Protein 1
Amino acid sequence: MDFVAAQTRRRSQPTALAAALAIGLTMAAAGAAGAADDVIRVKLKSGRSFIAQIDPQSDADVLRLRFERDGVVIVRPIEWTSIVSASRNDAVVDLAALRVDLAARRVLAPPSNGQPHELPIGNQARASRGRVTLWKVPLDSVAASPPAEPVRSIAVDAYLANWDADVEVDGLVVDVEFRDAYGNPTTAEATFAAELVGERYPPLTRGNALPILGRWTKQVAGGEFIAPGIWRTRLEFQAVHPDYQLWLSRYGLVHARVLVPGQGTFEASVDGLALRGFTPVRDRTQAAFGTRFLPTEATGRGHRESAVGVW
């Protein structure tokens, strides 16, 4: 009897080994198919889209996308409510069914024995060869923001500024404040137009007392607001420059016009704008030599041009 049992065990060993091998191959194939099936493309309400593998830690609250390259793994959690659509191999994925399926997988998944190493965002340390590094990415969700209140008025401020290496001023910095019906700051996509009006020293002729020194037109973009409701821009002096055309008086006026589509056109002006500021030494130099710059000063247009147009 013992001899027969031993022979039976010997004959069954190759069969068991073959069965185990078959099961292993089947599981490996299933794992590979699962990895391929888990590559998904999602489109968010913000307009962004991602193509990545679905991380096993996804659940009914968030979909976690897994990006892996050169030994570095990035897991990005995305709220289900911020996803517009999903597709896999150009086939549309039912988001509700996928959410339920991933929640079930999370419940049935065995607990992990170790936690991956986490690096803070912005850390550019490279992972060593053979080591998986997890980058922790904040939740990618669409924050609901209330719409801006309609624009009902604007306020304008302007001042001289120099933004290059020479000594003379280069133009004006203009701040436009958008206000709602209660005077509170608001924002809007708009078109900004401005003109700088100067004043000529006597003698005057018909039509030349208040010349236009420059005209500008720009688009107001949401990303250019420096503070709530305040948009800032630079207006570079054009052909006429107060420090070179000496027939100009010291003061000017900036007239601004803002066109907000669907809301109207709003205007404001800044009078008494000092085009030369307080310059006692330059004023005496101008009176004595017909130029406002000293010989040792570097200017952008040259000293000779500053003497053009002496009255």
Protein 2
Amino acid sequence: MLDELKSAARKVNGARQLRGLLIDCRRLLSERGEANSVAIARDLVARFRELPDDAQASFFERLSRDFSPDPKAVLQSAQAYAAAPSAANLQRLTQTAEPPRQELLRRINRTPGGTGSIVAMRRALLARMNQQPELQAVEADFLHLLSSWFNPGFLQLQRVDWNSPAQLLEQIIRHEAVHQIDGWDDLRRRLQPDRRCFAFFHPQLPDEPLIFVEVALLPAMPAAIAPLIDKTSEPAPASQFKVAAFYSISNCQPGLKGVSLGNFLIKRVAEELKRELPQLKTFCTLSPIPGFARWVRAGAPCEGLPKVRAQPWPKRMRRSPMPARATSTSSPTPPR
């Protein structure tokens, strides 16, 4: 009985918070004064953070239902443009078809910390997409705006080294998603002179890396990943640097999933390395080959390949990572 009362009280409180948040959303869209808009947006963001999970789900549903374009107005504008395809009619159609929630997000973005708040809101939204596929239009609006705001032209490339702030180094350890960093000694080895780590930053999130890539500078193309992440290995002298092997790339912001950053980061880093080390002639990546294990187990025609025999893999290896493979490229291909 007590648990039921507590659950009912949480629902009532969540519904009350949601009503206040939706009122703030409408106020923000109708407000014309810049100062008032910033204050309303700040309160709106604070209210969203306080919402319980079920109320957040309801908020996104209301964004989808109450902040979408008016179908009748869109149809009228489309018919007018079809009848007379003038610039004025096209502009009217574009304005009518844009969901009001896009303007809502733009106004939230104007407040201090607004960009980070929208990234956090999208992270919460993405966590619900499997259970609420009807929110796809809302997700498309978030992705559209964030793809513009995080255009690579706005991003700052920074090298991460052992002298970087401890807070940044801790984030590199925490966000490494490909080859786990085993403490500070492991990180120190990955930042030695024969290693490089570069990250993209956004001016509105100056202390938070968006994505980072790790590179090994080597005398020859590597055949496996293990020697590159061996924290007991000795650094190679700069005179031996001939190959840059991109061996790990990690996204740090789940709310930016789908925003294209990795390809641009690797290309920028390759250009940076060429300027710093003109002797580098080969750029490669160590990546697994998607579907390769399944192809071999299915009876791939390997007889014609040297030193390869088509046979079932031992059970103990079937869930193990595949051996890494190096691929030489004129411009590096991002690790998968």
